[in-house]
Amino acid sequence: MLVSHQIAAQEEEMATPRQPILRPFMLFILSRLVIESFASDPPLTLDYYSSSCPTVLEIVRKEMECAVLSDPRNAALAVRLHFHDCFVQGCDGSVLLDDTVTLKGEKTASPNVNSLLGYEIIDRIKNKLESECPGVVSCADILTIAARDAVILVGGPYWDVPLGRKDSKTASFDLANENIPTANEGLASIISKFLYQGLSVTDTVALSGAHTIGMARCQNYRARIYGSLGENSHLSSLKSTCTAVEGDDKIAPFDYVTPNVFDNSYYILLLKEDGLLNSDQELYSSLLGIQTKRLVRKYAEDSLAFFQQFSDSMVKMGNITNSDSFENGEVRKNCRFINT
């Protein structure tokens, strides 16, 4: 299988660092990035587990194949978990931690509580890896590999995944509420949150394309379907199940044309003003979106350009590291709890 050869080939290559493209947007954000640029990120490599757990990629791939085969929507769940993890303390597996008497996790934060699912997929992968390679593969790395494989399994691009992350011993409920973009944010706020992570405007538009798969709850698109100007037949059709006051848990696909296929249809729908969330449509319709509008058009016209940039931006996002976890982190035995 081509994908299998590609994944196997990953262990023969070395990761190529990708330098963030910084665009000044807010003074405090720029200052933060400049300061952090002097720190050396802990190294991630493609062959990190080549000796300690050579079957890690095969195990994750097989489990993800089963998950996506049982329900194609599981692909989007895995990708979303990775996104929400990396935007809080870096890609350190903190999003997977359950609340305990001594730790407040991120699962009940506003952007996560009714949005993140699929934790049991990661649990199954972790259990298989603990049987094969006890105490070796971090939950943070599992999330990163699973997201890549999820995209491939629904028709998206392949990319090499640098590995070697450690799991955090902490989580941040507050940062989860502050850092993760929400459904009704304006473009300026969305871009600022990506810039804060060292991700460019181009990364923002490309990574938003992950909404070519997956579903959203009525609670998150209600403001969009009742607040859009003019007549939109698709958005209007959603009002039958998502009323102005009821139906919070009703769901609709971000991309109603090919909801279970990773393609560039998301951007084509934005050109038609059919974005499901206000934050989606802002990429094309905001008066501030001169650059984002150009990129939406580019990816709508050229799926290969989207695939290439999405791959590059996913590696870049996956390389957002938690320096504290590299120094004081661990490899959790159970992704839901720190080791005792």
UniProtKB/TrEMBL annotation:
Residue sites binding Ca(2+) 2 per the record: T212, D255, T258, D263
Main localization, broad class: secreted
Compartment(s): Secreted
GO MF, one annotated term: metal ion binding
The keyword Transferase appears for this protein: no
Obligatory cofactor(s): heme b; Ca(2+)
Binding site for Ca(2+) 1: D85, V88, G90, D92, S94, E106
GO BP, one annotated term: response to oxidative stress
Cystine residue pairs: C53-C133, C86-C91, C139-C335, C218-C242
Domain Plant heme peroxidase family profile: 43-339
InterPro entries in UniProt: Haem_peroxidase (IPR002016), Haem_peroxidase_sf (IPR010255), Peroxidase_pln (IPR000823), Peroxidases_AS (IPR019794), Peroxidases_heam-ligand_BS (IPR019793), Secretory_peroxidase (IPR033905)
Primary enzyme class: oxidoreductase
Active site: H84
Family per record: Belongs to the peroxidase family. Ascorbate peroxidase subfamily.
Function: Removal of H(2)O(2), oxidation of toxic reductants, biosynthesis and degradation of lignin, suberization, auxin catabolism, response to environmental stresses such as wounding, pathogen attack and oxidative stress. These functions might be dependent on each isozyme/isoform in each plant tissue.
Name of protein: Peroxidase
Lineage: Eukaryota, Viridiplantae, Streptophyta, Embryophyta, Tracheophyta
